[in-house]
Write a structure and sequence with these properties.
This protein is of the alpha+beta class. The protein is about 25% helix and about 30% strand.
């Protein structure tokens, strides 16, 4: 299936204070963000024209940049207004929303304190990945070779582009072997997350999920934890070793793209998508549509 390249689409992208025709939103090849990874971004979804938990995303966007030692030159309120504008100008209702910020081309070296900070917001059509019955079949995941880094070696609380390099490699390798994605361990060999989503397991009616200290504590992750607690479910955030996956009943991913997606297999470990997964899929769907 051919996909229209993202630089050849129609519509509008907001960039540095202007709403530009899609094809005119460009950066120079010598931009610092391209060479040295000084780029941060957000992944958000709009449902019915309204961005889910938009302000939380905007606040994290600003903080991600601070962790990379620069300040996004727009307030949270200004970013909120821009995102709403771009969704409306592109006549979108259910769509993906991508704010992104990066250091420009004024300096081309590791040190780049005087580079201009560029900011853009784009949106594109991206409907929910599966309906609930398709989701309940579960997806198959590989075990990734690369691990999430020690938080003393990288700004893991920043949604920084450079931290996704090993995610892309891991997902490519998993797909080449027929899997949908891969689970990554942390630097000490404990279960961490998927390449672009958090992971949760069930056992004896309780939900178990890794402590988010070397990867993003996802906004969807926090939403799902809240939904589970509203249902009276106990949620245990703890260290999980890979061999423990043999004893879990259900497994599911949660993230902006994945929403809530059950898993049937992670390498040698098997799971049976069940009532907890289905309930949280349905509750999450209600939450994003009625917020």
């Amino acid at each position: 299936m051919s996909v229209l390249p993202f630089d050849q689409r129609e519509g509008f992208i907001w960039m540095n204070g202007e709403l530009l025709p899609w094809k005119d939103a460009k950066l120079h090849v010598l931009s610092h963000g391209l060479h040295y990874g000084s780029t941060v971004f957000e992944g958000e979804r709009a449902y019915g024209g309204v961005i889910f938990k938009s302000r939380e995303h905007s606040e994290r966007f600003k903080n991600s940049a601070r962790l990379l030692d620069y300040e996004i030159p727009y307030s949270v309120d200004e970013i909120e207004a821009v995102k709403k504008l771009v969704v409306e100008k592109n006549n979108m209702t259910d769509c993906y929303v991508r704010p992104v910020a990066w250091r420009g081309s004024e300096m081309m070296a590791v040190s780049a304190q005087n580079s201009k900070i560029h900011v853009a917001v784009a949106v594109w059509d991206w409907p929910s990945m599966f309906d609930v019955n398709q989701k309940m079949k579960g997806i198959r995941l590989d075990l990734a070779e690369y691990r999430r880094p020690d938080p003393k070696t990288a700004p893991c609380n920043s949604k920084a582009a450079g931290l996704y390099m090993i995610c892309t490699i891991s997902k490519h390798r998993a797909e080449a072997k027929g899997y949908a994605d891969a689970i990554m361990l942390d630097w000490q060999g404990r279960v961490a997350e998927c390449t672009g989503a958090n992971v949760m397991f069930t056992q004896d009616g309780k939900i178990h999920t890794p402590i988010a200290d070397c990867f993003l504590d996802g906004i969807t992750r926090r939403t799902v934890i809240d939904l589970a607690k509203r249902r009276g479910m106990e949620v245990v955030e703890r260290r999980i070793m890979p061999e423990e996956m043999a004893n879990f009943n259900e497994c599911f991913l949660c993230g902006t793209g994945a929403e809530v997606t059950p898993v049937s297999e992670i390498g040698p470990y098997k799971f049976t998508p069940g009532n907890i997964s289905r309930t949280l899929i349905e509750d999450y769907t209600q939450e994003v549509r009625n917020h």
